[in-house]
Amino acid sequence: MIDEESLGSLIARRRQELGKSQDRLADLMCAVSGRATVTKNEVSRYEREERIPTSESLRLLAQALDMSVDTLEHAAAIARTHRRRAQAARVLEAANPIGSPATVNIAAAEREEDETERREVLRSIAAASLVVAGWPVGARPGVELPRRILPEHATELREATNLYRAWVSRHGGGRLRRGVAALLERASMMHSASTEEGMKCELLQIIADLAGLGAYIARDVEAHGDAREMYRLALQAAKATEDRHLGGHLIVRMAGHNIELRRPGDTLGLLGAARQAARSALSPAERANQLCIEAWANAQRRDTDAVRRAVGQAEEEFARQDGTEFESWGRQHVTEAELFSLTGAAYGDLARADRRHASTAIARLQRALTLRGAAHARNRTLDLVSLAEAFVIANELDEAGNAAFLALEQVDDVASGRLANRLSEVGRALSPHRNRSELVDAFLYQLPVRLSRPHSRGGLFS
């Protein structure tokens, strides 16, 4: 099936369909970006899957090949999965005789598990979409619903949602997709079974929250197409309940998703929509969070003045917070740690173009790390990765190797595809500095081993 085509073969096939050489494709990508940064050799590495393009390179490829970014992102996810399975197989071959069941069956077992998970996620999206559109869904065989949907049943759904949310914050989203999908489908069936309008409205709010959480988890395992579908569903559910506060929050999270995909223009557009949607419902801390994301988007646009302005405004807004009690779906985004994390990442992005900003990035990220607790281990580990990147730019190699190694040590406990990819990027940044720092060498030696461990499958193979 073409839908399951890996990135390298997809690029080569589409390039040949258009009658373009690798040289010509490289020239087109340079023309789109306005920079002479892509060569024939780079295109060749993409097609052989020796290198997976970044989000920015995928955008350039999409324009040069006249394809959708979604199609290329899906193919890139398949390519990453193939590479990680190959790494895992090599590790297993070292411990098992060639041809043993452990080596032969690993890929088939993982494919079957991935396909099952994907079917369950799509089924939950379909069920919730029907409910939000006003159509009932019946209980599936084997699913038992209460005879009457009571407030305590809604409370149970909210408590389960919050348990999943807490798990993501601590351990990443890699092992949670099926559980959240099942909860979303159950909430949808309960909505159809309910006869009271007040309960139906509450269940729609729960569906919106669950879909937003499902989107966040999909982002964490690099399933960006699923994340977009989940966000659309969450927004529709929030709109159906006329909950402007939740709707604004979801749009801000979509803006954060676009930051990860390096789409600063889309990010800024979504932040404007969020302000209009939420209006006066936003607290100072929530406005501060939006301004932090705005700063990061402007950093990706290399607008230094706009970054400084947004960071200053964010700090002013955060200082004005008044002890407001936040909803469970927004609590983790309005902390002081998050303010320093996001602004540190913004200055880290600026430092890619001007290394003088690296020291500011380092100071802010170090402050974020001192504020993070164990309950937010996933984000703390991502902060360590950002810190390692800033140290590389500052040419402080021992510090970069130390921060990267500390992040790598968390791989067993944080099942996150995003973390795995970020660590791989740090590995590429540090590779030219091999044999210049013992800490860098230790990280580079451990990196392929840690990223291929089978028990990390939830984040690394999803």
Description:
By secondary structure, the protein is mainly alpha-helical. It has 22 helices and no strands. It has helices at 7-17, 22-33, 40-48, 55-65, 69-95, 101-104, 106-132, 151-171, 177-193, 197-220, 224-240, 244-260, 264-278, 284-300, 304-319, 336-353, 358-371, 377-393, 397-408, 417-430, 438-451, 457-460. It is globular. It has three domains: 2-104, lambda repressor-like DNA-binding domains (434 Repressor (Amino-terminal Domain), Orthogonal Bundle), CATH 1.10.260.40; 111-242; 372-462. Helix 8 runs parallel beside helix 10 (197-220) and helix 17 (358-371) runs antiparallel to helix 18 (377-393).
DSSP helix fraction: over 70%
Task: State the major sheet.
Answer: none
Low-confidence stretches: 454-462
Radius of gyration, in Å, reads: 23 Å
Number of domains: 3
Strand proportion: under 5%
Q: Count all strands and give the number.
A: 0
- Element order: H for helix, E for strand: HHHHHHHHHHHHHHHHHHHHHH
